[in-house]
Amino acid sequence: MATAEALYVIPSAVLRNLSDKLYEKRKNAALELEGIVKQLAVAGDHDKIIAVINLLTQEYTYSPQANNRKGGLIGLAAATVGLTSEAAQHLEQIVPSVLNSFSDQDSRVRYYACEALYNIAKVVRGDFIVFFNQIFDALCKLSADSDANVQSAAHLLDRLVKDIVTDCDQFSIEEFIPLLRERMNVLNPYVRQFLVGWITVLDSVPDIDMLGFLPDFLDGLFNMLSDSSHEIRQQADSALSEFLQEIKNSPSVDYGRMAEILVQRSGSQDEFTRLTAVTWINEFVKLGGDQLVPYYADILGAILPCISDKEEKIRVVARETNEELRGIKADPAEGFDVGAILSIARRQLSNEREATRIEALRWMSTLLNRHRSEVLVFLNDVLDTLLKALSDPSDEVVLLVLEVHACIAEDPQYFRQLVVFLVHNFQLDYSLLEKRGALIVRRLCVLLDAKRVYLELSTILEGESDLEFASIMVQALNLILLTSSELSHLRNLLKQSLINAAEKDLFLSLYASWCHSPMAIISLCLLVQAYQHASSVIQSLVEEDINVKFLVQLDKLIHLLETPTFAYLRLQPPQVSSPSDEQTLAYCSVRLHRSRIHLKVLLQQVRQVNVQAREDFSGYLQRLISSP
């Protein structure tokens, strides 16, 4: 009935020309149609207007014939122009048909759809905002159309729609953002340019709060920074720079949601993306302050690896941010998660870059200084990692690890746990003892008091069931004791142990474990000037089996006697007034140039060892004996 009514209103020649293959005929038919609709609008005959629109949509725009579809589109545009101010009430009939044609297989139909909607938009302006999301989605797809003419037409329509939106007070940013967020993941360069263009335009409208919705599309903008197109990277960077400036000037910003995005982007493979993300984090830390406390750990986890970045600009910004973070003195009661921060620092101790490992250790020290009780709760989670870090190839890292250990060990219960763990690690890894043992023990003695450290080590080694390890460990400790400048005070205490009752227990405590090594106990006795006992120990060695290890230790002892530590011993004259036989023997035994007698005894013992040993060491001992 409606179709028949429309056919009655519109001459058959107009309908025929509307679907003609020639554009001019279709255009002229559209002009006639415009006049007909205008007359109907003046007469207020809305039923016939609806009938005409239905005819154009059903019989033309949805026709299987391309020319019919083209005619239907130009006809709908003409009808809208004819309706003028009354067009808005018919948009529900007109716009969906035009939008449907945006996905037509025929590129010319798509082109005319853009043209039709352009003309419709010019007439109705802000009234078609209710269709904005559908129009935006259609334009988004057409921006990447395979036909250049369609792209050009879509671009003109896009400009008009932007003008309308910027002047319209009915635009709903809340309804638009979900669509924008969804489209931000598209990789097509034309679509990306389209999206950045819209973000920039909407952000320029004073009444539209794009900053409030920035977390919804921030990740998409960052994703564009690594685009292969220089123009797209530049546009995305420009948009991000503008938003960052707005953040600096805004009193209220949702830092949290954006911080999560920045943390992810700071680990991007793209250098420019990393730099931009770290720069944003730097500004957030300066501006956000307490608001970022819940994200403190995540931010730190992003910044620490960047401190060692291959790009200098990133390293500089990351270091600055790291110091800013350290300057924020947050409280656990305010949401500051000590355990999470500690976990990040522990994980970064495995980073291949030295600078990152160093900063991770400094964070551990900072946490211990500010939140000691909270850190100790998680001690078991980090202690093993800290002990493994003692094998780090970097001396600076090892020294910082020791500082952290020393800070932990201020409490007696943790002090013993540290020393036990340390001895255990030395036992598991002899190379650690060999390469880093001296550095570790010397530094701990400085940080924790040498007497305290040595007494604890002695107590542990006294009951060690692995005698070979105990001997090696004691030999190492003895060498450190006798040669390290950091232990000079401890040596002075030991020298007073026989005349000062207060230090007597020190000598006796060390003696108990030093017995694991004959040469160590001899040197300890000589250090405290217990010559008579040293003589007894030396005499007993004659009855021992002479093997390779024994001879090596003997050689080390002889060389030790030539060190500054025993200068007083070499220069001290024998007390000939009333020396006991034992004292004289001890004195003679410890003098290098008079040790030939004892070495000859050892040489006789070597003859009882296997043939290979005699061949290996006879020459060695003969050289020592015949030396001047």
TrEMBL record:
Keyword Membrane in record: yes
Pfam families annotated for this entry? Vac14_Fab1_bd, Vac14_Fig4_bd
TM region(s), chain numbering: none
Which biological process terms from the Gene Ontology are attached to this UniProt entry? phosphatidylinositol biosynthetic process
Task: Output the InterPro entries linked to this UniProt entry.
Answer: ARM-like (IPR011989), ARM-type_fold (IPR016024), HEAT_type_2 (IPR021133), Vac14 (IPR026825), VAC14_Fig4p-bd (IPR021841)
UniProt keywords (A-Z) are: Membrane, Repeat
List the PROSITE patterns hit by this protein, alphabetically. Answer: HEAT_REPEAT
Occurrences of domain Vacuolar protein 14 C-terminal Fig4-binding (ranges)? 431-572
**Stated name of the protein:** Protein VAC14 homolog isoform X2
What is the protein's species of origin? Answer: Nicotiana sylvestris
* Gene name tied to this protein: LOC104244267
